[in-house]
Amino acid sequence: MKIRKIIKSLLNRLTFLIIKISEILNLYNLFRRNFINYNSNKVKKIYITKKKKLYFFIPNDLTEYRVNTFFSKEPDTLNWINNFKKNSVFWDIGSNIGLYSCYAAMKKNCKVFSFEPSYFNLPILSKNINFNKLQKKISIVPLPLSDKSSYSNFNMSDITVGGALSSFSSLTGYDGKNIKKNFYYKTLGLTIDDIKVKYNLEYPDYLKIDVDGIDHLVLKGGLETLNRCKSILIEINLKFQSQYSLIKKILNKKKFVLNNETRLVNDKSSKFYQSFNQIWIKKK
């Protein structure tokens, strides 16, 4: 027993001594900075053709998952982009860390407007654009969109880098239920039509809306812009009937027809089982 106490006492003193030395030499801060820099600058490469490749930063498990499942998670979205006309204009609303923005710019030479209001995702989005040398092709729009221009709360349920499930000027989530607000900040929000007119952006030939809840309101704020759009990919949830009804009403009125519908997950136990990507095309 005495030997154990002596050993324990020596270990405690040694630990205390190491901590004090680390504080004196500032080793903790040095280690912390190096650890953060290392993880923030981890990069994964994916080939989109035999010759073309994209690089994405993966500072955490979620961003690594997004990159690892790039070809398998939403193949319908990639097929949709693959059918874009070259040199067209693509608005990626809810771009997250820019996977599809970079893919469209690299694969189809699109001019891309990448809409992402999360301050946690913007650093990685900008890094991905710059690392792939797509600064001339992709413009970042760091503002949320809705059905009216306003100054309101951007509510977030998840502040993880690469996270989603946020909502501007409401708490509405992807299924019509309120999200759990864990973080928020006040910011300016615009409509699609207002931002097009005020900043003289090119009309989108292709429009992707994936904002996890107020997709229908974002669409409602772009009625004039829809007149010039060729195809739209929008995420819907069948449990959120009022959302789906408004989306159908708007797109039918603007002479779009449903071309494809793909379930996001096939696992019936998943909360996203009733979520779909819908692709609508303008009648000729």
CATH class term: Alpha Beta
Q: What are the segments in which pLDDT stays under 50 over at least 5 consecutive residues? A: 31-36
- Tell me the strand order in the biggest sheet: 5-4-3-9-10-12-11
Mean pLDDT score: 90
**CATH superfamily heading:** Vaccinia Virus protein VP39
What's the CATH topology label? Rossmann fold
Tell me what portion of residues adopts beta-strand conformation.
Answer: 15-25%
N→C terminal distance = 88 Å
Descriptive key words:
284 residues; alpha/beta; Rossmann fold; seven-stranded mixed beta sheet; three-stranded antiparallel beta sheet; 12 strands
Summarize the topology.
Elements lengths: L1 H24 L1 H14 L2 E5 L5 E5 L3 H8 L1 H4 L1 H8 L6 E5 L5 H10 L2 E5 L6 H10 L6 E4 L8 E7 L9 E3 L14 E7 L2 H7 L7 E4 L5 H6 L2 H4 L4 E7 L3 H13 L2 E8 L11 E8 L2
Parallel strand pairs: 3-4, 3-9, 4-5, 9-10
Antiparallel strand pairs: 1-2, 6-7, 6-8, 10-12, 11-12
Helix pairs in contact: 5-6
Describe this structure in words.
The chain has a single domain, classed as Vaccinia Virus protein VP39 (Rossmann fold, 3-Layer(aba) Sandwich), CATH 3.40.50. Helix 5 (75-82) runs parallel beside helix 6. Residues 31-36 have low confidence and may be disordered. The protein is 38% helix and 24% strand. It contains eleven helices and twelve strands. With 284 residues, the chain is α/β, with parallel strands linked by helices. The chain has helices at residues 2-25, 27-40, 61-68, 70-73, 75-82, 99-108, 122-131, 192-198, 215-220, 223-226, 241-253; strands at 43-47, 53-57, 89-93, 111-115, 138-141, 150-156, 166-168, 183-189, 206-209, 231-237, 256-263, 275-282.
